[in-house]
Design a protein that fits this description.
This protein has about 280 residues and is of the alpha/beta class. It contains 8 helices and 16 strands.
Length: about 280
């Protein structure tokens, strides 16, 4: 989750913020590493509240000591730093805000608010899981896979990861998943790595061979729409992490509304999501 927005948020008072079970604080930057092309990982030293975030939740981040951009931007929690020293965010430079974020140095500070939203539902004793990521959509899914293994909700042999990207340069976290002992399938649009096809092709082929009990996914809306159709066809539960422009992250600005499956019903990514049952969304 890293979309940028120009919507103005409404001001929430302290009592509302406290009641929503989230906090605001300044976090010190531990590192801000370029991964190649336009991708970065930024590590933040923050309080235990953020470290206890659930996979799929996000935070709102604002740059300090910079007059522009003024508003916060949403980012998925990508990883809990070993030793519970803080959290890490994976992001891509796509506009003014993320361009300025990429210039932040080690030791500087940023304002964060969270953790926010509803994460992935994690049933116990799952026997087979598909994790499907498209491009930067991998951001919350490494956290999810690590959490499942650490909590012993499933073994590594139960999880199959599908990573899709435009090219080899856009593939993210492949080595991280492999180092977790997971089976990883790669596709790229240009054939520079793995198969030359959409990531949903091997997902459906693997699903026909042996169905998973649940699919977890995050990526472009076209990929999620296709995946939701596949999941419905084969009657497999599918949870998707969605992206939307938002200015507040707490349901005040109403800028992140998406259409629900029921006619006339709208859901808000920040409050109802960002993770949804794919059957509840109208693509």
């Amino acid at each position: 989750m890293h979309r940028e927005s120009n919507h103005q948020p409404k001001i929430m008072n302290h009592e509302i913020r406290r009641g929503m079970n989230m906090i605001m604080e300044k976090a010190q930057v531990l590192w801000n590493k370029k991964l190649g092309a336009s991708y970065y990982r930024i590590g933040l030293n923050c309080s235990r509240k953020f470290i206890s975030a659930s996979p799929g939740q996000f935070l709102m981040l604002r740059l300090t000591d910079r007059t522009s951009p003024l508003l916060r931007r949403p980012f998925s929690v990508h990883r809990i730093i070993e030793g519970e020293k803080g959290i890490e965010i994976l992001y891509r430079v796509v506009g003014e805000f993320t361009g300025r974020l990429s210039e932040v140095k080690d030791g500087e500070w940023v304002d964060i608010m969270g953790p926010l939203g509803n994460g992935f539902s994690l049933p116990e004793n799952i026997r087979r899981i598909f994790i499907v990521a498209g491009g930067i959509g991998v951001a919350p899914l490494l956290f999810l896979a690590t959490h499942i293994l650490e909590k012993k909700m499933a073994g590594s042999s139960n999880i199959k990861v599908f990573l899709g990207a435009r090219s080899k340069e856009d593939l993210l976290c492949m080595d991280n998943f492999i180092n977790l002992g997971l089976d990883v399938m790669i596709t790229t649009d240009d054939g520079s790595e793995g198969e030359t096809c959409l990531i949903t092709n091997p997902v459906e082929a693997s699903l026909k061979e042996k169905q998973p009990e649940v699919i977890y996914a995050c990526g472009p809306s076209g990929m999620l729409k296709c995946l939701a159709g596949i999941a419905e066809t084969y009657k497999v539960p599918c949870q998707i992490s969605t992206e939307s422009v938002m200015a507040c992250g707490i349901g005040a600005c109403l800028g992140c509304a998406i259409e629900g499956k029921d006619e006339g019903r709208y859901l808000h990514v920040c409050m109802d999501g960002p993770v949804f049952d794919s059957r509840d969304i109208r693509f």
